[in-house]
Amino acid sequence: MTRRGLALRLIIAVLVLGVLAIVAFRLFLVRFIRVPTGAMMNTILPGDQLVVYRLLGGITRGDVVVFKYRENEESYVARIIGLPGETIQLKGKLIYINGSVLDEQRVLVESRDNMHEPLKELSTEGSGPYRVYYVAHPSAEDEMSGDIATETPFKIPNESYFLMGDNRDNSYDSRYRGPAPRNLIWGKCSMIYVSEIQPERIFKKVQ
At residue 109, what are phi and psi to the nearest 5 degrees? Predict the structure, then answer.
């Protein structure tokens, strides 16, 4: 075989391996998803498209992840709130983990029917590494909704996680469906690469 033919084969082999590596990365290590609902507003808006990286290591409280509650059903996006073995209870706007209040920035917002506009923020209380959103109600309606962990403390099973949407009054999450098992948590949301509502959000980190 001539040197030219050998060089050509080498180039073809490198290109094929490169394509295979990209396909493998796309199939097993990264996903690109579009979020259709407002369960994570204002952190993630309907129409935001996200880069999601496969979770190969540990899961941290506060991570925004893509997961399923059961096999063979659609994927969801929510935030990790409770870890395996912990006890969680929800009282009003406060979350108690093993009896201690979880640090969160709680933002009061106006009720809004139009899902294609961000929630209008009124005030903020508390401090923490991320922001969550509650519709401003009269105090008589101030209890957090849900069937699980609202009346009595709930013990999170081993290898399972309690997840909640940031739009706390409009999220069908672990308060209703229970915790999600670790093997059905696929990956962590990294950033927004397209936003249909606010184009300036492109390349914004999800946190």
Answer: -130, 165
